[in-house]
Every structure is written in C-alpha cells, then in structure tokens.
Write a structure and sequence with these properties.
This protein is α/β, with parallel strands linked by helices and 203 residues long. It contains six helices and five strands, in the order ααβαβαβαβαβ.
C-alpha cells in the first residue's frame, strides 16, 4: 500500500486484478519519500518543458552516376504502361556501380551536407545512418563514416527501417538534441536498392 501511494504521488496509475495484498506498515523512509513527493506537487505531474528550437543547417545528396529512364527498364510482369509509371512521379532510377556502395554514397552526401552547413566533422556529437539494403553488424556503416570524416567526438550507429529510415533517424536526432549534452548531429540515409529488388518487379 505504501508503494502504491508513492507511485500514485509520482503520477503513476496502475490496476492489479484480485484483492489487494496485505501490506506491512510503511517505514519511516517511505513516509519521508511520500511527504517529499506530495510537497512537490502531489499526484499532479509538472508541465513538460518546451522543446528546444532545432535547425537543419545543411543538406547533402548523392546519386549514382548511371541513371536509367523508365523506357529503358525491362518489361514488368504483369505489364505496366509508361503512363502508369509516370503517375508515380519517378522519371529515372540510379543504378549504383560496385564502387558506389553504401559507405561511398553516405560519405559523399555527408561531406556535401557539412560543407553546406559550414560545419567541421569534429564538432559533431553523433552520427546516425539509416540503411536497409546492406545490413552490417560488426562494424556498422555509421562508425566507418564517422572515422572517414574525422568526427572523433561523435558516437555513431546504424538503423534499419526501410523507406522510413531517414525519418526515424531525424526523430532520434530530435530526441538527442533536446539534451543539452548534444549540440550538433548528422543524419544520413544510404541504400543500394538494386542489390535487393527484382529487375522485373514493380518496386
């Protein structure tokens, strides 16, 4: 019962099935903790602090050198007209070469983003890389980008969320940047989809 009072005073709510268990009398420590919680607002949660203002200061992209137009693609099965394909809004597709792997493309985009933002890599606090098509576990791609850029202070890790990966990366960065310990981060997305999709599929 004393623990339930403490949790209730801290803003927690819970329900347990069955009759309440027999509880021992609260100790002096529990009495003191409960009094402190109630003195700081009782069972009402304090309002959240406003979120810090965040800004994107640089954007960098990289596309493979080889671009293929819709009419150059092999016929789809079942057939799909060029007019239908045009409705999707995709006019060309990049076909990455063997040299244009996930690391290469991520590094090129990262360099351009940092240059546009006029920011040095060693000022970054973290680096997040979204990649689905070529998952690596030891090491991730992000630490390799971090090393190549010279971002010595930054921690780095990969996430894999397919098409939504970059948005998830931005959401993670937003959360980190609410902490005053972190001031600057880099979010990347790099995929080589030609290694995963079927040439005659609708993808």
């Amino acid at each position: 019962a004393a623990l339930k009072d403490l949790l209730h005073a801290g803003g927690f709510r819970f329900a347990m099935p069955g009759p309440p268990p027999t509880a021992a009398p609260p100790s002096a420590l529990e009495h003191d903790l409960l009094a402190r919680l109630r003195a700081h607002g009782g069972s009402h949660r304090k309002p959240r602090c406003p979120l810090a203002d965040l800004f994107m200061t640089g954007l960098g992209t990289y596309l493979p050198q080889r671009l293929v137009a819709n009419h150059e693609l092999p016929a789809l099965d079942p057939p799909h007209s060029l007019a239908d394909m045009a409705k999707v809004g995709v006019r060309t597709r990049g076909i990455a070469s063997d040299e244009e792997d996930v690391l290469f493309m991520a590094l090129r985009a990262a360099e351009r983003a940092l240059a546009q933002a006029e920011v040095s890599a060693d000022s970054l606090d973290f680096l997040i890389l979204a990649n689905w098509t070529e998952r690596r576990y030891v090491p991730d791609f992000a630490p390799r980008v971090q090393q190549a850029l010279g971002a010595r202070r930054a921690f780095a890790f990969d996430i894999g969320c397919a098409c939504a990966g970059f948005l998830y990366g931005l959401t993670l960065a937003h959360g980190y940047l609410q902490n005053p310990r972190f001031q600057r981060g880099l979010v990347l997305a790099s995929d080589r989809s030609t290694r995963r999709v079927r040439p005659r599929s609708r993808a």
